[in-house]
Amino acid sequence: MKVLITEVIWDQGITTLQEEGIEVYYDKDLWAKRETLLEIVKDFDAIIVRNQTKVDQELLIECTKLKVIGRLGVGLDNIDVVKAKEKGIHVVMARHANATSVAEYVMAAILSAKRPIHEANEDVKNGYWDRRKHTGEELYQKTIGLIGLGEIAHRVAKRATAFGMEVIGYDPFITEYDHIVAETGVRIKSSLDEILVNSDFISIHVPLTPSTKDLISTQQLKSMKPSAFLINTSRGGIIDEKALCDSLMNHEIAGVFLDVLESEPVDPSNKLLDFKNAIFSPHIAGLTTESQIRISLLVAKEVGKLLKGQKSLCVV
Ligand code: NAD
């Protein structure tokens, strides 16, 4: 059995596969060498990817032996799952393995929105000691609105509640009897607009699908409080970036934290880079040492199981 890994995996994942007697070919940059990838992929029983490798129709046509696609993460927008299933190929993902990391990133973002310690540090090192300028605001009794109430939102809700925040959420597929609402005290709202109008922070936790593309655009941004911050750790494309630029230009919102963008890595000509209150990170919300070990181990184990004809709970 042979497994092809096209993006970064932690050593523990490779060792797990090898201990199962599986041959591993690992090139962390193969996702960027499309021609080579298309040429060699036909020799493998499984392929393990992150979010950069396009596992599309063109690639799947080349995969005559492929039985399993492993996704080191949870977003599936780079994989043609329908086509894979048609070909009888299993798709497994690292269900829930980086949700805690993303939730902690969201808390870091909202804390830094109101207490920008890095800016204060810069001032002090530049010789300023201005306590008034750096007067912050508490999170206590502020409202966070969660768009999408799945696994990550659940963990954000628990942490925000511990800070004494009001947590409201919108998800048309969740009812008041679901765990996140029943157990975390999230107040569920029946429309997206109620979240936009009432929140001091809005955090997006939906997958990128045709129905969530540009979910946050001109009208939605205009509905937000001018003092509110938007946080996107889900996927680029869910916020309309042109509309976001206009909104920041017109001071319609206080700021935005963008871990994900429509085009990654960021295009240097992206106008959003010009705004001081647009804070970027290079798609790292789910990226911590703990989550990467967890993800690598989980995906390697589940791919190994499927190659041996066993069942996996992580099949999509
Ligand atoms: P999940 O599947 O547990 O939850 C997604 C929720 O979105 C579901 O409850 C679903 O009902 C809801 N939803 C779907 N369409 C909606 C809509 N139009 N309006 C409101 N709610 C809607 O997913 P999750 O584990 O919470 O992850 C969410 C997303 O976060 C993933 O799809 C992935 O793209 C992204 N993610 C990013 C990182 C990162 O490093 N930045 C890491 C992990 C996940």
From TrEMBL:
Top-level taxon of origin: Bacteria
What GO molecular functions are on record for this protein?
NAD binding; oxidoreductase activity, acting on the CH-OH group of donors, NAD or NADP as acceptor
Q: What keywords were assigned to this record?
A: NAD, Oxidoreductase
The UniProt record lists the D-isomer specific 2-hydroxyacid dehydrogenase NAD-binding domain at: 107-285
Could you confirm whether the keyword Ion transport appears in this record? no
Q: Which residues does the UniProt record annotate as the domain D-isomer specific 2-hydroxyacid dehydrogenase catalytic?
A: 3-313
Q: Which CDD domains match?
A: PGDH_4 (cd12173)
Q: Which family does it belong to?
A: Belongs to the D-isomer specific 2-hydroxyacid dehydrogenase family.
Q: Which PANTHER family match?
A: D-ISOMER SPECIFIC 2-HYDROXYACID DEHYDROGENASE FAMILY PROTEIN (AFU_ORTHOLOGUE AFUA_6G10090)
**Protein name (database record):** Hydroxyacid dehydrogenase
